[in-house]
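Researcher: I'm preparing a figure for a lab meeting and need a structural model of a single chain. I don't have an experimental structure, so a prediction will have to do for now. The sequence is pasted below. Please return the structure as tokens so I can convert it later.
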Amino acid sequence: MLFVSDICWGSLTQRPQHIAARLARRTPLLWIEPITLGHPWRLRPVEVAPMLQILSVPQIPLNARAAWMRALARVLVAIGPLRILFERLQATLVRRALRAMGWGPQPSAAVVQNFQLMDLVRRLGVGRIVFDYIDDSFGFARLPPVVERQWQQTIESANSIGVTSPRLRRLIE
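Model: Understood. Here is the structure written out token by token.
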């Protein structure tokens, strides 16, 4: 199973890490996190617990803390070929990790919290998708239209959707 997170495993332990650790008691799990400044980059899978490994992938940092980095990211995300290059690199890293872990090329399921990586999930041919909608990303920063399309596509692609509040439920209905 894949767990596509929008936070790093080594961040403050929160709901995502608790869910992933619980799932890993029953099935092997690959936690996929965005490369984030100030956190170690794991470009090859690293085991952090039995049946739980972590992999970092590059992502255009639209929610970066620094305003200059968010502004640069808005420019970069508007360049279609660059987005495709990022998606291909992400998919290559994940496929390489799956091979190293002895998994087949197509994971059977994914829990997706980071909908900006949904193109990666689709590219991998994941069978079942659970969208765990935990935060209103649009409430934190002004995001470009491509991100709203990714969010909509995640909602449409998900087999199941979980929300953490009535407000988030209203947003997806």
